[in-house]
């Protein structure tokens, strides 16, 4: 296939379509109708949505005293009894990672996984899998605490808690980091 560069300002749209489809040959540029050049205007969409608005498109988002909480049903992320992230869940987690990266370098995160069966071993593995996935998408693992928790009522879910930076640089970004 040969590649040709065509001066579009000297050809009509119909001539270009004819060349591209191979249906006809275009008249020489000197006999073609000349259309005035139009300025190219790059438009940008409205300002990027807030991270919270971006997250709300793929998960349930609530503001709680402990921070912004992003909740995903466990069934959208994992097969029953498994800790491997489902291929269909990757798009959601990619969107979440993009939004979380916009929270800033000082934000920290907690990934909490719960199962209905109370199997904390699988909960720990699932939380670690989400942490590893987010780390691979640009959120440093040292900013993500992963916890497998006991059941919380009827909820089998993964929650990502977003902690905003403290006002004092000496304070820990993880509320649970204090000695117990």
List the keywords.
180 residues; globular; disordered C terminus
Plain-language structure description:
The structure is a single chain. The chain is of the alpha+beta class and 180 residues long. It is 24% helix and 18% strand. The chain has four helices and five strands. It has helices at 13-21, 51-56, 90-101, 120-136, and strands spanning 60-64, 67-73, 108-114, 144-149, 157-163. The protein has a five-stranded mixed sheet with strand order 1-2-5-3-4. Strand 3 (108-114), helix 4 and strand 4 form a beta-alpha-beta unit. The protein is globular and about 35 Å long.
Describe this structure in a few short sentences.
This protein has 4 helices and 5 strands. The chain is of the alpha+beta class.
Chart the SSEs and their pairings.
Layout: H1 13-21, H2 51-56, E1 60-64, E2 67-73, H3 90-101, E3 108-114, H4 120-136, E4 144-149, E5 157-163
Parallel strand pairs: 3-4
Antiparallel strand pairs: 1-2, 2-5, 3-5
The major pleated sheet works out as:
5 strands, mixed
Number of strands: 5
- Our Rg estimate from Cα atoms comes to 26 Å
Principal-axes shape call: globular
Mean pLDDT: 73
Order of helices and strands: HHEEHEHEE
* Fraction of residues in helix: 10-25%
Fraction in beta strands: 15-25%
Estimated structural class = alpha+beta
Give unreliable regions as ranges. Answer: 1-45, 168-180
From the N-terminal CA to the C-terminal CA, the straight-line distance is 71 Å
Arrangement of strands in the largest sheet: 1-2-5-3-4
Supply the number of helical segments: 4
